[in-house]
Design the sequence.
């Protein structure tokens, strides 16, 4: 592979990575807590898109429990979206870079 081919390949990698990262906003995951009483949906950019709270939970005496459930549901959704984003980016760049043992590109994704 000559230098011009290598530079062309890098431009293609950059372009596909940009497209893949933009696609992350369309990947969503929902985490729940309290047997589904609280649900939080996030996207691949790790933005919280929505929070659903069962109406029965909205009582002044249950405030601390509700806060804990929101945190738990958000953390669950964030943990679940990580797997989806890695797979999305892996598929988007598949075949562009050689398989080099020990080369970890997770920091780029």
Sequence:
């Amino acid at each position: 592979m000559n230098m011009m081919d290598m530079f062309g390949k890098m431009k293609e990698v950059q372009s596909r990575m940009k497209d893949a990262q933009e696609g992350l906003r369309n990947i969503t995951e929902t985490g729940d807590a309290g047997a589904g009483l609280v649900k939080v949906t996030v996207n691949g950019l790790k933005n919280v898109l929505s929070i659903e709270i069962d109406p029965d939970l909205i009582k002044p005496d249950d405030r601390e429990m509700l806060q804990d459930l929101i945190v738990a549901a958000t953390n669950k959704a964030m943990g679940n979206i990580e797997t989806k984003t890695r797979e999305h980016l892996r598929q988007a760049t598949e075949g562009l870079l050689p398989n080099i043992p020990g080369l970890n590109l997770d920091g780029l994704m």
